[in-house]
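are you around this afternoon, could really use another pair of eyes. what follows is a protein written twice so to speak, once as letters and once as structure tokens for the fold. i want to understand how the tokens follow from the sequence so walk me through it. anything you notice is useful, everything is just below.
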Amino acid sequence: MGGQAGSEIEVTLSGEAIDDASELVFSHPGITATAKLDDTGKVVPKRYVVTIAADCPAGIHEARVMTPLGLSSSRVFSVDTVAEVVQTEPSTSPENALPIAINSIVNATMPVRGVNHYQFEAKQDQRVIVDCAARGIDSKLNAVVIIADAAGRDLLVERRGDLLDFTAPADGQYIVKVHELTFKGGAEYFYRLAIRELPADEQPVRMAGTEAVNAFSWPPTGLAQTAKSTEVEPNNGKRAAETSSVQPITLPCDIAGTFFPAADVDVFEFTAKKGESWWVEVASERLGLPTDPTMLVQRVVENESDSSKTESLVDVIELADIPSPVKVSGNNYAYDGPPYNAGTSDILGKIEIPEDGRYRVQLLDAFGGTRSDVRNRYRMVIRKAEPDFALVAWALHMGLRNGDRNALSKPISLRPGATMALEVVAFRRDGFDGDIELSMQSLPDGVFAQGLKIPAGKSRGIMLVTADEGAPSGWANATFVGQAEIEGETVSRPCRLASMAWPVKDAWSEIPSPRLVGDVAVSVGSAEVAPLTIQPAADAPIEVVAGESVTIPLAHRRRSEFSGATVAMQTMGFAFEAHPKFDLPLNDDQSEVTLDLAKLKTAPGDYWIAFYGSAVAKYSREALAADPIGAAKPSSEAAKKPSTTDIADIVVSKPIAIRVLPAEKK
């Protein structure tokens, strides 16, 4: 699952549909791989020699294999600076515990119903940190980690996947036990166990892991890596008018703090003028922490008639969760949205100052009374409006029934002749409400991309990635950005990709585990062509006068048989998505669609749209190989081949340009 910078290691791959893999590739150029050769010079299947450059940054990187179907989904490959070993056999008892040196990492797989044991030597009062990376490196393992004495008696236990901070009570040997919470195991239950020495005054740091989808919206552009100031304890005044434990601040501010100890309430106070507007943003959950920040802003009112000059507090605003910019799928009978959540329990809101005076901010973790961890940190930024946006995208999912949410985001691996749609979601910051144009560059040969913009005031757009029918097999790390006009300047922001760590075939029994991906890998395969290509009959923009109807002729390129004679199609693209569903005939070579711009109320301008739906194709690799560029119908002999398989897939048309002219101009 990883290796030490500056080393050469051997890796073995497992997975589905990777038997014909031609190369192992990584998201960072400092990691390279060559096929393993046996003594006779022949390639050893699924084994590679990986070279990690000495200057390769520590952390996680993406690993994929290139196959005839294109690039596979990715797996985390970790790089660290300490020595690493691989456990090849289970160590199921203290007697056969695997010896591990302090300041090293072991790569292992959990056996079914098993407990792995490791042994290390420690001196009295030596501080040792034991960290098990599992969920953060795409494993299905819910790790339970135990430190025991030499006889196997438990001394320290962690069942929530956190690290263990251990100080040896005496010189001697100690045992580390690792098992899965419910004693599951197998190839998908892998982990990296690190044992490190740490000085008494240092804060432990977890091994690098993947980020949750909502982390795409942090940090704001230009924010310094470290905060300008920190909270100063005691500043834990409660919800009464306590002045002795209030930390004065000056706006704008950038403050780092912690939700510690349990039930901690951090209180800050600032002065402001009537009519001022301040934006406040708090990050904690997006830092990968199990926190739920909540903020109450109050105006401090001095009771002048009271001889004791008491103060009272008047609520101004309470800020809590940032909702997802788009609806998230619920665990319902029918699919009702993507199984990704771009929202967060962090804070982003606007404070309008109603009167001159002093204002008090109370910041707490909504469930902080149940946890007391000094690592539960936060970053609070209060600023004048800095309009901006952040973007995240994922593969368009099918709407299936019976609780199947199709939570199996595909890599951007295209068949020649296919178009793939990505949903793009915008996180708008500090009042930015403008158009966002989407684009993708540095694509493989024969591949082009067209963004369907995120319009002003909206949060969702589409990116269409298309491989020409003659596109050669290959891959590239693409650049995916959004551009917008903000305060008279054109700004460009990267778009992150999100994907499922594992396919989820039954959402009732398994919770989807999406994560952010570290790159934008796009590929074209050589084994198959698309079973159906739908494209406009002409490449030129289709012109129509606002308020009139326009008929769009479509050409079909079929290379497979389908289940059913039609496919229900929807329209994607701003100002056209309200067009009702229509049936596209699968057995015809052409069709047409009429759009009523009067009903759609489409304003003059230039637009890109596409049509999409779900169809069940009868795949046959032999038939596709016999007709690689796509005839009107597969041959009758090929259609009879017994290897045909029904596969449900999303069919997306190539992008269609429409120019809507003002009513007075023809």
